[in-house]
Amino acid sequence: MIPVAAAPGSGVFVVQSVMPPLAPWRGRLVVLAGIVLVGLNLRIAVAAVSPIIQVVRQDFALTDTQVGLLGTVPVASFALFGSLATPVARRLGLEPTMILALLLSMTGELLRALAGGAPAFIGWSVIALGGLGMGNVLLPPLVKRYFPDRIGTVTASYSVAMSVSAAVPPLVALPVAQAAGWRWSVGMWAILGFAAVVPWVVVIVQSVSARSHLRKLLRRAPRSDRPAALVRAGAQESRIVWRSRLAWALVLAFFANTTCTYVLFAWLPEILADAGLGADVGGRWLAVFAILGLPASIVSPVLTARMRNPFPLVVGFAACWVAGLLGLMLVPAQGTALWMVLVGIGPGTFPIMLALIGLRSRTPAIAVALSGMVQGLGYALAVVGPVGIGVLHVATGSWREPFLVLLGLVALLLVAGWFACRPTMLGPEPAA
């Protein structure tokens, strides 16, 4: 659906069910390849370390504090660098900024593989994950720019790639570390980052406006002389986004879902071990939890794009969250498979929010500003989740209170999702 009528004077636009003519895929396949390859990189720097952390710990004598810091680095880096992606994209353009993000990630992955000690390993991990944080923010506006007629399908494509990037490294990281050493296991993923750079270089080479824009920047031309970028989020777009109830609803929904997901990534093995199932069993269920995001990544963005109001999807995924969390809280050792399937399906709201960034933005410029706000602020709020839940568990000596907090976050997800899914659009009113 596309917006064709505006609510006068509001800056918020009503969606009407008028479909644009579908453009052919021809001419956009290079961009699609670039988007999917970026998706394949977005979780690797996170998922490649945790399976071999004990091997790294033996080499560097990592303290418990440093191990805990490594668990917090992903969300913190996503928040910090994701917030930087918007102003950088305003100046450089989306495609050059994506190349910069990929180069940052590749550099961090390679140099942390060569690190001589724990501080360097952690520091270069920040850079590797920071590049991915920028990539997180840039993908929705790139989809909006190149595939406004296929937002659901393309969002599903890179969401699936993200799920693969989270599921594959745990399967191969430890065998490679045992065969060739942990440094090879950590650094080899930079090859995939290099592969993701190539399509975006091709896109820039083929784009006359992008080349002209970069030449002007390199010559340090006055701002008034620089060519107008095809995608630019200026002060007006930022004001519209930050004053929007829709944008804040997306932030809160993103925060609630992300916090629940990362808390389980951090604590699920210990939760199941405390239930008497053993740490090895908890590790296997954690892998299942990651893989179960794949079906939702395929289905939910496509359905979101086809529905005027996708809130029923949010309700369905939230119901899975509630049932799974209640099962893990009350009887974790009984029916564990069912509880894990349910909490594995619950994060399907994540690709819904990614799709809504493009679907609710009138222009790519608005999508840049909205994506930066939603992901930057959402990840920033989620930083306290894993640490706070751990502190609460230690303070109470029980997992009951932490699970009640997670259930409260699911309630927040429902309320915020109701506002986020309403059929409104962000952007300036069209000319008469």
TrEMBL record:
- Signal peptide range equals none
Q: Which residues cross the membrane?
A: 29-53, 65-85, 121-139, 151-174, 186-210, 246-265, 285-304, 311-331, 337-359, 366-391, 403-421
Membrane topology note: Multi-pass membrane protein
The record's keywords, sorted A to Z, are: Membrane, Transmembrane, Transmembrane helix
* Gene3D superfamilies assigned to the protein according to its UniProt record, in alphabetical order: MFS general substrate transporter like domains
The yes or no answer to whether the keyword Membrane is present is yes
Cellular location(s): Cell membrane
UniProt KW Iron keyword: no
User: Per the database record, which ranges form the Major facilitator superfamily (MFS) profile domain?
Assistant: 27-425
Major location, coarse class?
Answer: membrane
Parts forming coiled coils: none
UniProt name for this protein: CP family cyanate transporter-like MFS transporter
Q: Which organism is it from?
A: Cellulomonas humilata
User: What is this organism's lineage?
Assistant: Bacteria, Bacillati, Actinomycetota, Actinomycetes, Micrococcales
